[in-house]
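Q: Given only this backbone (219 positions), what sequence would you predict?
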């Protein structure tokens, strides 16, 4: 939602509201949706980060800002984006659905329109709250669940979904590595990851997981 945006005063004001809310969580760790292999570059950029500059990048404008404000020494890059053997893209499944599954295409179009609308919102605090609402991240979950059913044969959609789940499982492993009992982690991540990261973390029985909506509703 930050990319290529020249921020207005109202946008920056709502961004500060979002930052202040997240800071009340008092995080000990900040994780961002950048590949783990780029950690050295992230460390370098974090050291030269200027909190008075708007970088048009959530990982910096939220992740770096919160890290500096809370005295965190290093921001952790936890993503993984390598290609797997025999992995095909999501486009094959969508092309098949265009001809055979209008219900899926309606779901996909509605979700894209929803994200585009919020991406253009002036109030980034409200947009983030909406993206983290259970009703909305459940739509992502149902879309990927529906995608599992697409195709005349399983090779149409399952390889990409297997990669998607693998990516998120690796992110969970990276997020939780070397945590202490009193660790408090904020993960800056795209909305499409919310449902699955929450599901995977909770399935271990070891973590108390809250979305931003959960946090704001109960703090």
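A: Predicted residues:
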């Amino acid at each position: 939602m930050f990319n290529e945006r020249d921020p207005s005063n109202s946008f920056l004001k709502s961004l500060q509201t979002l930052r202040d809310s997240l800071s009340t969580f008092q995080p000990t760790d900040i994780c961002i949706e950048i590949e783990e292999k780029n950690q050295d570059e992230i460390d370098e950029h974090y050291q030269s980060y200027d909190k008075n500059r708007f970088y048009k990048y959530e990982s910096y404008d939220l992740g770096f800002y919160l890290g500096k404000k809370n005295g965190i020494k290093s921001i952790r890059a936890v993503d993984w984006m390598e290609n797997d053997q025999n992995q095909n893209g999501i486009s094959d499944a969508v092309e098949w659905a265009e001809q055979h599954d209008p219900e899926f295409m309606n779901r996909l179009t509605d979700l894209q329109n929803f994200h585009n609308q919020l991406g253009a919102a002036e109030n980034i605090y409200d947009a983030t709250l909406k993206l983290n609402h259970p009703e909305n991240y459940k739509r992502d979950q149902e879309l990927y669940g529906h995608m599992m059913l697409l195709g005349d044969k399983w090779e149409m959609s399952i390889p990409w979904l297997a990669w998607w789940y693998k990516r998120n499982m690796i992110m969970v492993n990276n997020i939780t590595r070397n945590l202490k009992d009193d660790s408090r982690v904020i993960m800056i991540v795209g909305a499409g990851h919310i449902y699955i990261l929450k599901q995977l973390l909770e399935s271990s029985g070891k973590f108390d997981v809250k979305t931003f909506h959960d946090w704001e509703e109960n703090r």
